[in-house]
């Protein structure tokens, strides 16, 4: 027979294992999504550098494609975990975040191309930092690193800013996503 202190310690151990498994599952799905976004964003920055007049089209297509792939990954992740539901709350969340960002950057902000890029990166990293408060420090590390390097590029990098951002934003997301797989 075990006493109440031993039972409490055993339950704490079990809760710790459950918490680590849940974080591991979140990190596995998130790392796939973050890495995918990194590849898409890297390609979009390079395309935007090569064809600057097509920037809005390039970014619209990139973001819509990313949203579709993210939703598909969420759906498949739900199927694998036994939840046979479409991730509608996640989709609605992304749509609301995007709609608010468009409203702030296009309607209220009237940003030029360079400030528009910085706005969207910083806006996106805000949500990574918030996710880090709920799901683990890796999100915060990605957010802080990407934000700092973006601001350095904004103030210090000249005409090669889009190439800088391809490496900093796209490459940073890929590295962050791969790092999350190892945690």
Q: How would you describe this structure to a colleague?
A:
There is one protein chain. This protein has 183 residues and is mainly α. It has one domain. The chain has 6 helices and no strands. Helix 1 runs antiparallel to helix 2, helix 1 runs antiparallel to helix 6 and helix 4 packs antiparallel against helix 5. The longest helix is centred in the N-terminal third of the chain and has 47 residues. It starts with a helix and ends with a helix. The mean pLDDT is 85.
**Continuous helix count:** 6
Report the sheet with the most strands, covering strand number, pairing sense and barrel closure. none
Q: Which parts are unreliable, with pLDDT below 50 for 5 consecutive residues or more?
A: none
Tell me, rounded to a whole number, the average pLDDT: 85
Percentage beta strand: under 5%
The total count of strands amounts to 0
User: Structural class, please?
Assistant: mainly alpha
Rg calculated over all Cα atoms:
19 Å
**End-to-end distance, in Å?**
37 Å
Number of domains: 1
- Helix-residue proportion: over 70%
SSE pattern: HHHHHH
